[in-house]
């Protein structure tokens, strides 16, 4: 049967709070186990839509009594729309979920655990890249998703600018960093920064207030509580971690001197003219600034590699994150998964679709699409090849998973509140209106979330 592709034109959605009564409603009472019918499936990444449309077509050919209706909405509107759908009892049967979000759904009973279904039907969790299945075990010990991909952080840089500055690819592959003087990482960023008079950041007379090209780009907002693409790969090299344990921690560490020293160094790049002020980042994506020649380097996730590979008129290259004082690199890694809404009337069909989404059959299609690296180990090489064919090397990103220098996204309850508190605190520091020591008070506010009744 033909899949209905719903082209969703996103509009602003007021984020409504999910009623507390939802947490009291057992999934078995709010949904139904039908093995046939239509399964609605929501996702946010337009770049992956063609691959998942092909997966849906293949799935329907194997299951002619199930229709898959895919709806794609951009990230900026996706989560508000999803919460509104839960409130209206109109949530999709299956949706792409994120580590930072699913704790809010498990605490309210809005998504179903999959443990019994996996025990009955598979798959064998050993088929996935090591560590990715762990991200989808909630703080209640139950599993809420099957990993579908994995990611890492690395450097995208303008190869022409680097070459003109006398910086070699070998230098870019072996950068070092420390929070005292920034190591060779800061030296490269200084060299790549050029003011309106053509003076470089490491030359006498450089004007940090009138910069034509900044060495390093900054994304807005500047990292919130996770700093996934912005600073976590730096603080991680100091042995700092967001919470007292890798996943589902209840005590955050933003008062740690190592974290505050990392952000102090990062903020100093703005003062030195090596990184733009926040106001330049507002409304301008790093890829746009890169294409406009305003920045030379940006730290971003591997999921954006196809975006940077397609930038017209720019010769791009990739490099791994810098080596820190302890002699190793660090990168945050995450894995998306598909969750089943507890209120779905077609859970049997939804479970068949979720299993297929995480299967080697579907993920080989995703791998060939060359956008992300699937979490199914057997197709990782295919994805690396497909991405490399676009002109950018993904191994500076994936090497850290092979070398054991990756750490997981800090899944925690109250994630939205943590991010809200830290986003405000981070913006104040990065705009120069507060000192990094102000994170100590913000940390107290964050930890209070876990001690209140």
Automatic annotation (TrEMBL):
Signal peptide from the UniProt entry: 1-22
UniProt cross-references to InterPro entries, sorted A to Z: Bact_solute-bd_prot1, SBP
Keyword flag Oxidoreductase: no
Main location: other
Keywords recorded for this protein, A-Z: Signal, Transport
UniProt key word Signal: yes
Location of this chain's protein in the cell: Cell envelope
CDD domains, per the entry: PBP2_TMBP_like (cd13585)
Family: Belongs to the bacterial solute-binding protein 1 family.
Name used for this protein in its record: Sugar ABC transporter substrate-binding protein
């Amino acid at each position: 049967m033909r899949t209905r592709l719903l082209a969703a034109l996103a509009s602003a959605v007021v984020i409504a709070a999910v009623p507390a009564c939802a947490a009291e409603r057992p999934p078995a009472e709010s949904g139904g186990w039908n093995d046939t019918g239509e399964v609605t499936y929501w996702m946010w990444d337009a770049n992956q839509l063609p691959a998942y449309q092909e997966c849906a077509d293949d799935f329907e050919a194997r299951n002619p009594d199930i229709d898959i209706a895919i709806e794609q909405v951009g990230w900026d509107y996706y989560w508000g729309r999803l919460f509104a759908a839960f409130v209206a009892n109109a949530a999709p049967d299956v949706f792409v979920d994120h580590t930072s979000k699913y704790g809010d759904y498990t605490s309210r009973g809005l998504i179903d655990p999959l443990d019994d279904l996996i025990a009955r039907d598979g798959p064998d969790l050993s088929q996935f890249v090591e560590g990715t299945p762990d991200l989808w075990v909630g703080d209640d010990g139950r599993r809420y998703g099957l990993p579908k991909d994995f990611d890492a952080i690395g450097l995208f840089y303008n190869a022409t600018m680097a070459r003109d500055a006398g910086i070699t690819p070998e230098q870019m592959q072996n950068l070092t960093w420390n929070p005292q003087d920034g190591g060779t990482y800061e030296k490269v960023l200084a060299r790549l920064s050029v003011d309106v008079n053509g003076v470089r950041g490491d030359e006498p007379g450089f004007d940090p207030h009138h910069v034509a090209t900044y060495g390093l780009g900054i994304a807005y907002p500047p990292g919130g509580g996770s700093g996934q693409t912005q600073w976590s790969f730096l603080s991680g090299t100091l042995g700092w971690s967001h919470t007292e344990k890798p996943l589902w921690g209840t005590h955050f560490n933003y008062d740690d001197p190592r974290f505050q020293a990392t952000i102090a160094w990062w903020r100093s790049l703005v003062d030195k003219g090596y990184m733009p002020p926040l106001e330049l980042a507002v409304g301008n994506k790093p890829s746009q600034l890169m294409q406009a020649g305003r920045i030379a380097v940006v730290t971003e996730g591997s999921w954006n590699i196809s975006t940077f590979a397609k930038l017209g008129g720019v010769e791009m290259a990739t490099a791994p994150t810098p080596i820190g004082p302890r002699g190793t690199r660090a990168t945050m890694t995450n894995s998306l998964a598909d969750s089943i809404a507890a209120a779905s009337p077609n859970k049997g069909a939804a479970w068949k679709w979720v299993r297929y989404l995480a299967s080697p059959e579907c993920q080989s299609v995703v791998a060939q699409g060359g956008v992300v690296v699937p979490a199914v180990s057997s197709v990782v090489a295919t994805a690396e090849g497909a991405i490399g064919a676009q002109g950018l090397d993904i191994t500076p990103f994936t090497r850290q998973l092979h070398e054991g220098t990756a750490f997981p996204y800090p899944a925690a309850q109250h994630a939205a509140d943590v991010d809200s508190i830290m986003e405000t605190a981070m913006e104040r520091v990065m705009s120069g209106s507060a000192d990094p020591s102000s994170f100590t008070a913000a940390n107290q506010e964050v930890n209070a979330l876990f001690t209140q009744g």
